[in-house]
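Per reviewer request, we include the raw input and output of the structure prediction for the construct analysed in the revised manuscript.
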Amino acid sequence: MQNILETISSPKDIKRLSLHELEALALEIREFIIENVSRTGGHLASSLGTVELTLAMHYVFNAPHDKILWDVGHQAYPHKILTGRKDNFASLRQTGGVSAFINPKESPYDPFVSGHTGNAIPAASGICETMAKADCKNRVIAVIGDGSLSNGLTFEGLNFVGTNKQKLIVVLNDNKMFISPRVGAVADYLSRIMTSRKVREVKDEIKGLLKRIPLGGDTIYRVAKYIEGNLKGAVTEGTLFEELGFRYVGPIDGHRLDHLIQAFRNVSTMHEPIFLHVVTRKGNGYRPAMKDPEHFHGVGKFELENGDLKTEPNAVTYSDVFGRALVKIAKRDPRIVAISAAMTAGTGLKNFAARYPDRFFDVGIAEGHAVTMAAGMALYGLRPVVAIYSTFLQRSYDEIIHDVALQNAPVIFAVDRAGLVGADGPTHHGVFDLAYFRSIPNMTVLAPRDHLMLERMLVHAVRIQGPVAIRYPRDKIVASPLKPGNVKSGKAEVLREGTRLAVFCVGPLCYDVLEAVKRMDDIAVVDLVCAKPLDRETVCRIVEACRGRFIVVEDGCTQGGVGSAVVESLRDLAYPLRFDLLGLPDAFVEHGSLCDLKKFLGLDPEGIRKAINRLL
């Protein structure tokens, strides 16, 4: 029997299939995803949970004319496979291959970029409005995860869509029973029945009759609506969304294709805001992922048979070091509290949460709230440590300025995944934090070259009476670190003296610089340690000794970054300057391995060496 997946090159191909064939195709897609992700790594568990959901949407709707927006691309591997990327799927997250997230440059079936949670409903709302003005009859569907419901942007979008009665279908992929644990045959059946055209017409007719009753028809109707709402609340958790102006449908079993297809057909005929609640199981169809969905949310290469990692399972990361160091500090200092935004394990805070549950706060995907809450804590006696990935911390830029820095609140930002992150690509590279932190008054910005310096910086940050950011990478720790220096705000560390040319660097790139100059004589290497305030005295002294020749190496954007700070500090130097700034250009960097990306950007030892030779 021919493999059905081999015959699928676009969503049009699945519309000819029977229900039995669609169910067989779902199994094939799961096997295809598991096999490929075992070789490349990726976001496995979420995508395994959306196979039937994706098939049902593409079976009923007509993408790309109908627009399907995904709130983060974690869930979208089945979508990629069905929309023409199956043959290239083995290149997932590889340099030049299929991207990890939703990317409009990659496919016309991807209508809007998706890497950070929260943007699907507002974007879909904008598309809805545009289509309405063009009198376009195609539908817009926004698929969100249950974690999106802790994000303020999602509720801003829900509020606008409901108020303006836009013809948007919001699909909630609930894979953690986040809203309602009640799902079963009766609830599923009622949800499907209550969305049918006939039942809707009957309900509307009854409403009209109630309102037309003489002497009190409106009152009777309001009472009936009140009873209806309370009865519905007893069966589902949809009252909130009904109050926001949506017709709530659900919960639907997200792994029953027949139920999903019927529900989508029903809601496709409605001309009002729809909130369709679909309950799925994260990792469905692969036992290791079902057993540990958190681990398989984003996983490296693994053994297909048992799910064991192919990479070093015990490789220590900067996140691990940060988590252990914070536990030690918290033991001595009862003021220390830790805050995460739905990334407890990823930021290394799992042990802290277990050890100090009353001093740990996971606010969900609500980075702005995390930062402002931390400001409130800091100003009234606690010492909050906010651990958030660099790319997600961007979402709270205003709160950092207005609520933390303006009040000089002593909040410590543990900026994880700073710099290039590799396979996750442009939505996840943490390359803007140096520039935006540098621009904010009262901020101290520290960049450890290795894990030993990270530990010292964390201790130092607790002593600072103002906001501090410590940025560190995703990578595993340096194997042979240098002896750590003393950490002082605004004090650099000279790693190597020289007079021909100076290389200034921050973070682990210091080791790439040292490797680059290993066989080059008389080249100075300076670990700036503190990106803000900059050690202007040391910078001027070293550059003067090198007669104005220097290079700055950083894993952030060069515009407004550390290189800019160095140049600004030299404006009064008598020597003419001859320099180069190595970092990320004024462009978004695509996904690929860290090794490939560093080579492409000239941030590997060979690229740094070439830059030095150009100036000598």
